[in-house]
Specification:
By secondary structure, this protein is of the alpha/beta class. 38% of the residues lie in helices and 15% in strands. It contains twelve helices and twelve strands. It has a seven-stranded mixed β-sheet, with helices on both faces. Strands 9-12-11 form a three-stranded antiparallel β-sheet, with helices on one face. Strand 3, helix 4 (123-131) and strand 4 (134-139) form a beta-alpha-beta unit. Helix 2 (73-83) packs parallel to helix 9. The model has no long low-confidence stretch (mean pLDDT 95).
Amino acid sequence: MTEPGSCAASVHLRSVLEGVPAYTPGKPASAPAGVTAYKISSNENPYPPLPSVLETVREAAGEMNRYPDMAVTALTERLARHLDVPAERIATGPGSVGVLGQIVAATCENGDEVIFAWRSFEAYPILVQLSGARAVPVPLTATGRHDLAAMAAAITDTTRLILVCTPNNPTGPSVGHEELAAFIAAVPPTVTVVLDEAYLEFVTAADAPDCLALHRAHPNVVVLRTFSKAYGLAGLRVGYAVAHPPLAAALRKTAIPFGVNSLAQVAAIASLDAWDELRERVSALVAERARVVAALTAQGWELPDTQANFVYFPMGEQSGAFAAACQEAGLTVRPYGSDGVRATIAEPAANDALIAVCAAWRQTH
């Protein structure tokens, strides 16, 4: 007789799972004895919640025995005012990656194709392959930028979805408005184009795209955003898409019921209300980014033009050794196989430690 849980028992699993890569999260902070540990592997906002946001969450926590508003009504209406778009165009979910899962589920079937740059956000190939669709990764340029011409050339009759991450995670560059507008104009109107702006608030490039304007001009363009990064709500998981009504309605159909919890909803609204305070923190991180990039450039590093809250080191086969050197200094960074290493712009002390590690690396390599 087979015991419950015995290895002799087997269940049917989807064959597609065999080829799905596992998502690799940023590791917890750790350091050798006597060294301060900093986690700069997950692009989190290093600042704690604003007092006004934290108080709102505390008050809402007293009602956590109740289900959240499944329609996310108050946040949807607040976002509509904030973005100057009709509320019917807003679809929410547990982080922008959750909303992206809803987009893939709404647009893709077995055998369909999804185009995205690579390397880009690690969840892209996972979500695509789980849907039964086929991932079509298009290599980045040598400077870590999207090759939009190559992405356009990759479109076929079975392409259903194109993902454009701007700024690109993990390399950092954003796409230009004119090049993105020309690219979208060349995409068949039946293909959905998702503009993933998880790091929008950190962008300072003069030619940065106005993705909402591109959405308004094209029925097939979706803007994807999150409260995890600049707003500092990574632990609460809330993101949203701006899509034209037919697709927005489809995203609500594919959403997990009650996927955006009550605390996330009120915290997101409070964060929008406190944007002037939050903008000061974002400005401080952007200033730190400029300081770090200037110091690394002076050391001789040639890095992609980051418009996000991180820097990327295209280390190739030395990625593992460089990540280990950072770990010895108490810095937990994010290596990407033999491609490169990403380091989040964090508090000044962590950034100082990163600059010091990089200086030592340049002297010995």
